[in-house]
Structure formats: C-alpha cells, structure tokens
Amino acid sequence: MMLTAEEVRHFRHNGYLVVRHAVPDALLKQTRELVQEHWSPADELSEDGQVKLYRMYERDPGRMHALVAHRGIVEPLRDLLGPNIVYVLNRHNQATVNGPGESRPRLHRDVLQWSRGLVTVIVYLEDATVDNGCTRLVPGSQYLPFFGVPQPEGGGTWMDEHAELRDLADQAVPVPVPAGGILVFDSLVFHSVGLNRSTGTRMSVTAGYRSVDELDATPDATREILVTGELIYRGNDRG
Ligand SMILES: O=C(O)CCC(=O)C(=O)O
Ligand SMILES: [Fe+2]
C-alpha cells in the first residue's frame, strides 16, 4: 500500500484526496513544455472560461504516457481502484490553462452515475492556490442522487441546472495543491475550477482513470490505455 487505510477511507467518504509530490520536477517540466507547444493565448475559452486542449495523448503519446502512467500517479490509484487500471482517452485527456480573470466557474460532475464510475486526476503543472483558481469541490457530493440531463456535447451534470442543489453551491471548498501534486476525486463529486484573481496562469492536466471492466470481453483499445496490471475478463458466459 502506498496510501494509508485512512487516506483510502477519506477518498471514499469525502470523494477526494490530495497527493503531494506525485510527479517529479523533470516530468513536470517536460509536460509544461508540451502544453506550451500546443497552447496559444488566442485559443477559444471553454464553457467555464479556461483554455482546454483535448486529445493530449493522441497529440503526443510518448510524453503523455510518461505522465499518465507515472508511478507517482498510478501507485496511489492502485490502492483506490485495484491492480488493473486504464487511462481513458474519451473523457478529459486534456490540458487546461486557467488564465487570469477568465473562468466562469460552474460546479459539475464529470460522469453521470456511479456504476459507470470514473476517477478524475488533476495534475498541477503550476502551484494551484486560492488566489489563482485552485479546484473547488463539495466534499461527499458523490453520494447525491442521480441528476441526469446529459449535456449536448457529452460530459457531466451542471449543479446550477438543478434547483434542488442550489443551496449546496455555498458548500464548495477550495483545494490548493502545489505544483507536482495531484488531486484525485470520484468523478461524481461536484467540482469546478476556481476564479483566477492572480496575474499568472494555473496550468494543469486532467486525466480520467477507471478499473479494468471485468465484464467487458472486448475492451476498446482506441479509447483506453492500460497503465498497470492486465485486461482481465471474468464474465461467466464462457461455458
Ligand atoms: O481545472 C480544474 O480545476 C477543474 C477542471 C474540470 O472540472 C474539468 O475539466 O472537468
Ligand atoms: Fe470537471
């Protein structure tokens, strides 16, 4: 075990966990350079006001694999998800540049429901502080019921579209994480980027992981990358 039983319980109960010093400086620098090669300050802003560069793995499989399969990330994930884990290419797989004053934060979930679960990992390439718009989240909100309404372009669920959830918006807490640290959360936790009141950027990579699906006999290699263990199949339809 890399995480303690208390940390695992914290993740399950509150829905998130911060792991400091997960990514070493050289890998952090290499990833920052990669993002800088693909980012232009003129890039269009996302719904919540950030520049988001999607399909990062496809843009540079070598450097992205080095990051998303790095043991500083995968080892804590093993304690949460078991020994067989895939990185998904079709949710997140993105670099984010949260620029000064740009964001219009909206709390949301990254997936619709728990039985098709996902874990979101945000790797901070620069310090994420209260001032420059660190991620905010509502602890324990992974246990709230299903709030469907799929978005037109896929993605999760916006809290502000559900009147029943309005009072919870005030319960979001900021989670500062120094560069090289990661925030791991149950993708059902309501969260958002924070407003950047500083003069600099807050650069990060957002990644989605899940356990290998023991009932999927034909994993789609074009949409998931094994990062540890093996692609097991345990369906009892094999005669
Ligand atoms: O960058 C952040 O702090 C949050 C990003 C996020 O929620 C997302 O990309 O889905
Ligand atoms: Fe999100």
Automatic annotation (TrEMBL):
User: Gene3D superfamilies, alphabetically?
Assistant: q2cbj1_9rhob like domain
Q: Which SUPFAM superfamilies match?
A: Clavaminate synthase-like
Sequence ranges assigned to domain Fe2OG dioxygenase in this UniProt record: 82-211
Molecular-function annotations in GO = 2-oxoglutarate-dependent dioxygenase activity; iron ion binding
Q: Which family does it belong to?
A: Belongs to the iron/ascorbate-dependent oxidoreductase family.
Name the domain of life this protein comes from: Bacteria
Keywords, A to Z, come to:
Dioxygenase, Iron, Metal-binding, Oxidoreductase
* Entry protein name: Phytanoyl-CoA dioxygenase family protein
Q: Which PROSITE patterns match?
A: FE2OG_OXY
| Heme among keywords | no
Q: Which PANTHER family does its entry note?
A: ECTOINE DIOXYGENASE, PHYTANOYL-COA DIOXYGENASE DOMAIN CONTAINING 1
